[in-house]
Amino acid sequence: MASSRPYSSVLFLVIAMLFIVTFSHVAEAHGRQQKLRPQDCKPRCAYRCSATSHKKPCKFFCEKCCATCLCVPPGVYGHKETCPCYNNWKTQEGKPKCP
């Protein structure tokens, strides 16, 4: 019975390492979403605005917001909470500036 104990510790360590490696990639991907390079804005905004019927103004404001915030929320709508600068930038009327 004493001989099975070292194997269970090794198994636990292997599982713990797999867990850490798995979630380190998730954290890395999330970090990349937050800080884009200026040249990444155009393709991200093209995707962000792909589902709207007002593509030209959507892309214009998205690229302007991305240039300032270096962030574009994931998806074609919503999820602005992932980019606080993008989410909090308002027009003079208090409406969201960024699509």
Automatic annotation (TrEMBL):
<feature type="signal peptide">
    <location>
        <begin position="1"/>
        <end position="29"/>
    </location>
</feature>
<dbReference type="Pfam" id="PF02704">
    <property type="entry name" value="GASA"/>
</dbReference>
<keyword id="KW-0732">Signal</keyword>
<protein>
    <submittedName>
        <fullName>Uncharacterized protein</fullName>
    </submittedName>
</protein>
<comment type="similarity">
    <text>Belongs to the GASA family.</text>
</comment>
<dbReference type="InterPro" id="IPR003854">
    <property type="entry name" value="GASA"/>
</dbReference>
